[in-house]
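User: Predict the full complex structure for these chains.
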Amino acid sequence: MPTGFGWEFKTQYQRCQWEAMEYKDREYAHALYEKDGEIARITLNRPEKRNAFSDRMFNDMLAGLHQANDDPEVRVVIIRGAGPCFSAGHELSSPYQEESPPVDPRYNPTLVDYYGFERRRCNKHEDLLHYPKPTIAQVHGYCIGAGEAVAASCDLTIAAEDSQFGIRGFGRFTNGIANLLLWPAGSNKAYAGRVLPEVSGKEAAQMGAINKAVPQDKLEEEVNKWAEALSRLAPEALTITKEWINGMLDITGAGAAWRSHYGAHIMLQYVRFHPSEVSLYKTRRDKGLKGFFVDRAISATPGEKPAA
Amino acid sequence: MMSTIIYEKKDKIGWIILNRPEKLNAINDCLLEELDQALAAAEPDLEVKVVVIKGAGKCFSVGEDLTGLGTSEVLPPERGGRLSTKRLLEAERRRSRRWEYIFNLAKPTIAQVHGHCLGAGLSLAMLCDITIASQDAVFGDPELRMGLLPGMPLWLWLVGIKKTKEMLYSGRYIDASEAEKIGLINKVVPPDKLEQEVNRLAEGISLMPGDGLAICKDGINAVMEARGLGEAWRFTDNMQLVMQQRSIEPGEFDFFETRDKKGLRAALEQRDVPFTSLRAQEEEG
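Assistant: Here is the predicted structure of the two-chain assembly.
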């Protein structure tokens, strides 16, 4: 059903989004694709923006996944970030027509359009979770928001000890898309993690939210070791095993949890902020994006607030 | 008279001992059949309040008997065999229903683990309500290295998503302290304290009212069922069948063919050598 919003609201039989993203003749820019024998690497590549997700970066990443899937030689995909970090999350300063940032109130979409939008946005992560080949997130520095969701959707996450995982949200409300972390075991630990603004790679490994934390200078070596080991397995057997594990996740209700997450995004859009609270749109309009970051940090810090 | 299982009752505790020490308690059809018998004897017995499962000799169990002799219950059917799909599904259901029966036994169960605890041996330990291990215990499931589905759903319920994938994709072995850390087992004790610790715990449990224990256990398992465990068993049966249809590409490692041509030891070596980098790292860490 076409909508006035410019995207199609697809109810079923939806092709996954990486499958729809063409890689032939693509000039990779915001994410790079390279192949080294049986291992493909997708490198998030906007270091000057701390690899914040623009639409272009998402699309280049999805095209890379498509290319790696079509290449029978590729057996493992590594996702990593260029420059100072893995990813700082959604790009909050990208043009409001883009999908990546939260929906701008100027759109004033109908509820169904809006739901379709959120569904499409979150589906990129779901599609990564269900990607047929094994995936490893190689995390250093910030791994925040959408970046954390990408890492959580990979099969394995190996991180630098001093990397930082977290969700900052666009108000003070922090809603973990990392609900995968809560699923289904260890949720008590994960919830405890959610009330903390951020956890280090080391803490995340202790929580069981990621597989391993190593010193940053050992990160690449460690990830390569795992990628190489996984590349030795029979690819079909590995894919079936992954499908089995993810299928059990669906049985435990993970599919419904994603849907509730679309809903949470939408509800966030209708949150009414108390004058003392920080709203992305209002603060960004009045003080610019940097001003929003400052105010958000102040509001998220316990204790006396300086006068606004 | 049972040949691969010893079952004895002592002070309200039923002891089930996996007893193929010369084969490191590898699990074959006979052992499973006798395990069924022992559990069937223990479950209705009002004098038994708690069941302990342990291994005789060097270890708990190295897992499935991979020789192919008397192992139709534990190994997949021969490739290109002529069994109907219905028969294949029956076999998988029998396998998972046996595991479900052990998991839902109306008495508390304790696995007392020392030495290797791998594959189906680990499944057995995971199915017990409580697992106590000695420091020398080693846990892992290398089935995927042989192209088999490591089809034990409980992984996901016990240790979470990332660890499940890490353990099953790599087939790596972990020691008892790591197993305790990730929630795979309850407690690690020094080897010479293992028996004593399990006895202490079993005695404690045996002071509880028997009906109360059964109902408490059922309630806890019901929570896992509510989170989809029951459906996961059936889904696992189906995926086992899917996996059995896999064809082996030319040049790909075929565990069973290698076993038949070069012997079991050579096949195991070929299975595990590509993963030694992960093992070396474990020894470092």
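Chain B touches chain A through 43 residues (CB under 8 Å).
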